[in-house]
Specification:
Number of domains: 2
Radius of gyration: 20 Å
Oligomer: single chain
Order of helices and strands: EHHHHHEEHHHHEE
Largest sheet: 3 strands, antiparallel
Shape: elongated
Distance between the termini: 39 Å
Number of helices: 9
């Protein structure tokens, strides 16, 4: 799998860089109000992930073709090679790349060629420069369909899964590829009927995780205005 920066030529090239065969600097967007940027940094490791994004762009500027993360021998870069090259944390780099694919700033391709076919990323693309969506991407639910186990390929489950993915996205808690894999693995163990109930419960209660619909989650006290306490499902 090859990774490349989405719309590299649009966001990271200008009339000066297009005349240069090799770059020693990168024109970098400086807006901080777009959906992509706010989603990236609105995370406990958001600043570290943004730092990884800057390093990835610097590496991509030295690749051939620019923007496509290929090594000199034309083999694809991985999070390990980028981390080693930039002296960054491999753990942070891996997590950052997963989130950048999820947000839509990085695309995955099957082949190393510049014209490689894109693998749809799991969420609608968020603009690197501007506010909101600048280019419509493949809907998140359809992009995740390829991860659904055979045991769950039932029309009713797929509809419930699509509702779950879209609900998470609307609540600004969009799934990453790894999170989707883990949740689908858990749902697989439930079976179709129970998995559907688990997803419906999650949507109804605005949960971020998948929980056994036949189990009981512990309640914790929540202090309301006026000192009145109620129990809230965590």
């Amino acid at each position: 799998m090859t990774l490349r920066i989405r719309d590299w030529d649009k966001h990271f090239e200008n009339n000066r860089t297009r005349e240069l065969k090799k770059l020693s600097w990168v024109p970098f967007p400086n807006k901080h109000d777009g959906d992509g940027y706010t989603e990236l940094v609105d995370h406990k490791d958001g600043v570290a992930h943004f730092g990884c994004w800057c390093l990835i762009c610097e590496v991509a500027s030295k690749c051939d073709p620019r923007g496509t993360l290929l090594r000199d021998d034309k083999t694809p870069h991985t999070f390990e090679t980028i981390a080693r090259m930039t002296r960054a944390s491999a753990t942070d780099m891996r997590s950052a790349i997963e989130r950048l694919i999820s947000i839509g700033w990085i695309e995955s391709c099957d082949n190393p060629a510049p014209s490689c076919d894109l693998i749809p990323h799991p969420h609608a693309q968020k603009g690197i420069e501007g506010k909101g969506t600048e280019q419509q991407g493949t809907p998140a639910c359809e992009a995740f369909d390829q991860l659904i186990p055979e045991q769950l390929k039932d029309g009713r489950f797929i509809a419930a899964w699509h509702s779950w993915v879209n609900d998470r996205k609307e609540r600004r808690k969009a799934l990453t590829i790894r999170a989707a894999e883990l949740q689908l693995s858990k749902l697989k163990a439930f079976g179709v009927e129970k998995a559907i109930r688990a997803l419906d419960n999650g949507i109804e209660k605005s949960w971020s995780g998948i929980f056994d619909p036949d189990g009981q989650r512990a309640a914790k006290p929540v202090k309301k205005a006026g000192g009145i306490k109620i129990s809230e499902i965590d």
